[in-house]
TrEMBL record:
Keywords: Cell membrane, Membrane, Transmembrane, Transmembrane helix, Transport
Protein name: Sugar ABC transporter permease
Start and end residues of each stretch annotated as Disordered: 1-20
Domain of life of the native organism: Bacteria
Organism name: Streptomyces gibsoniae
Membrane-spanning parts: 30-57, 91-112, 124-146, 166-189, 218-237, 274-296
């Protein structure tokens, strides 16, 4: 072996090791990712594909699906008045519940930010409804609170809300507003990231608290507001448990709480029109995607990012 062969052999060996270790790392990564990949394919992508195929069929859960083309969609848009009542109820609920929930969450977050004692206790206490509110038991308690002879009836003398078409939807919306803990925690985290020097400079300039909130807090918090707005809007379109519990699964009174997902459940599992329910599910998916896209599009005009000077 010559002296020139030794460096060449050493270089060849050292160049082979990183390649082998890189392949080993890639293989290990796929091993760790495999449960997620299998879950995503088996529990999300494959059911979505099956649902899309069923939306073009007449399927009653017992017999084999029968291909009907676009009949489910045309019937949905042109021959089903209850479908449009469910759309109206859902849009009304989203327009009421989401702004009220975000406003209350922001107000409580501002109050907690200025507290110096027992902040952790109050933060946990306000967050607790977000853990409990989605359960059927709490929804049933909520129905009892707003029913005839319940606490709200005895206090206000307005009668039971859940039996009045003009008030039943508001009772369901208030249950969602009560679950403001999750966006509140996110708002509180965003408020703590705003530099205190901005408020000190504003006080020196004589800016009022309202002016500081409007000119400092809202612009600096706008990415967090946008995040909560998108998240809560998507969740509001999919609300089911409160409406099911408050209306006993009927969407009443007078279809005032017939939310989209509740009517989808009725068509799919009560009337056994699973093809029709699948078509409804895909329309809901497209609507949520369109609304989310609009929110992202409009965010360019009001969401401020500190890292981008032109915003």
């Amino acid at each position: 072996m010559t002296t020139t062969d030794v460096p060449t052999t050493a270089v060849a060996r050292t160049s082979a090791v990183p390649g082998r270790s890189g392949r080993e790392r890639e293989g290990a990564a796929w091993v760790f990712l495999s449960p997620w990949v299998l879950g995503a394919v088996g529990l999300t992508l494959l059911p979505m594909a099956v649902s899309l195929c069923l939306s073009f069929t007449d399927y009653d859960l017992f017999d084999s699906p029968h291909w009907v083309g676009l009949r489910n969609y045309t019937q949905m848009f042109t021959q089903d008045p209850r479908y449009w009542r469910s759309v109206t109820a859902t849009l009304t609920y989203v327009a009421i519940a989401v702004p009220l929930q975000l406003a209350l969450a922001l107000a409580v977050a501002l109050a907690l930010k200025s507290m110096h004692r027992a902040k952790g206790f109050y933060r946990s206490a306000f967050y607790a409804p977000s853990l409990l509110g989605a359960s059927m038991s709490v929804a049933l308690v909520w129905r009892a609170v707003f029913n005839d002879g319940g606490p709200v009836d005895r206090l206000l003398g307005t009668g039971g809300w859940v039996d009045r078409p003009g008030w039943a939807l508001l009772a369901v919306a208030l249950l969602t507003v009560w679950q403001f803990g999750a966006p509140m925690v996110i708002f509180l985290a965003g408020l703590q990231q705003i530099p205190g020097e901005l408020y000190e400079a504003a006080e020196v300039d004589g800016a009022s608290r309202w002016r500081q909130f409007r000119s400092i807090t809202v612009p600096m918090l706008s990415p967090v507001i946008f995040f909560n707005l998108v998240l809560q809007t998507i969740q509001a379109f999919q609300v089911f448990t409160p409406a099911f519990a408050v209306s006993a699964g009927k969407g009443g009174p007078a279809d005032s709480t017939l939310f989209y997902t509740l009517y989808l459940y009725d068509r799919g599992f009560v009337a056994s029109h699973m093809g029709y329910a699948s078509a409804m599910a895909w329309v809901l998916l497209l609507v949520i995607g369109a609304v989310t896209a609009v929110l992202f599009r409009t965010s360019r005009s009001w969401v401020f990012y500190a890292s981008e000077g032109d915003r």
